[in-house]
Write a structure and sequence with these properties.
Layout (H helix, E strand, L loop, with lengths): L1 H13 L8 E10 L6 E5 L9 H16 L8 E11 L20 E5 L6 E7 L8 E3 L2 E4 L4 E4 L3 E5 L5 E5 L1
Parallel strand pairs: 5-7
Antiparallel strand pairs: 1-2, 1-3, 4-5, 6-9, 7-8, 9-10
């Protein structure tokens, strides 16, 4: 595990992180002896310095029971794999755009032939859509980089940071 941690830390340092900003997260894949599938459990302490097998078992047993509904406690537990995840600093989120305060209206319509010949659908400017706005399909949402097409019987909702989520129904 030391090698894994060192390798992961070195990769992040090479990417520009300082050692102080690297966080190591430890986990283990365990199973009851003879089984073919493992269950990954997160460890709250670094197993390189805290050699407490009981602590790992105490995390595995309830996780296994929650997933499968039973615990074959008479069967020995087997640790299959150690896992080390290295994470760099969490970078604050910066919005790519400021959303308008009022819902945007279609800037026009366009004739399309996707669902039926000659159907006219509203066209929205992506930058005009506000948080919480719902666009019912069929519709087109245009922006410089892409065009989003909302089919009939679908709705698109704009979330609080401007992402568009399209759902059928």
């Amino acid at each position: 595990m030391g090698e894994l941690a060192n390798e992961a830390t070195a990769a992040l340092k090479e990417a520009g992180c300082t050692e102080e900003t690297v966080t190591l997260i430890f986990a283990a894949d365990l199973r009851y002896l003879g089984q073919q599938s493992e269950l990954t459990v997160a460890l709250d302490l670094d197993p390189r310095t805290h050699h407490d097998a009981k602590r790992i078992v105490d995390v595995f047993v309830p996780a296994y029971k929650k997933l499968y509904g039973v615990n074959p406690s008479h069967v020995p537990i087997e640790l299959v794999t150690w896992r080390v995840t290295a994470r760099g600093p969490i970078i604050p989120f910066n919005r790519a755009m400021t959303l308008p305060a009022v819902y945007g209206q279609p800037k026009g319509t366009r004739q399309v032939h996707a669902w039926s010949d000659g159907l006219r659908v509203p066209v929205y400017d992506r930058n005009s859509l506000a948080a919480g706005q719902i666009v019912k399909g069929p519709a087109i949402i245009e922006e410089r980089e892409t065009t989003t097409v909302i089919p009939p019987e679908w709705t698109a909702t704009v979330d609080k940071i401007g992402c568009i989520f399209a759902r059928k129904g």
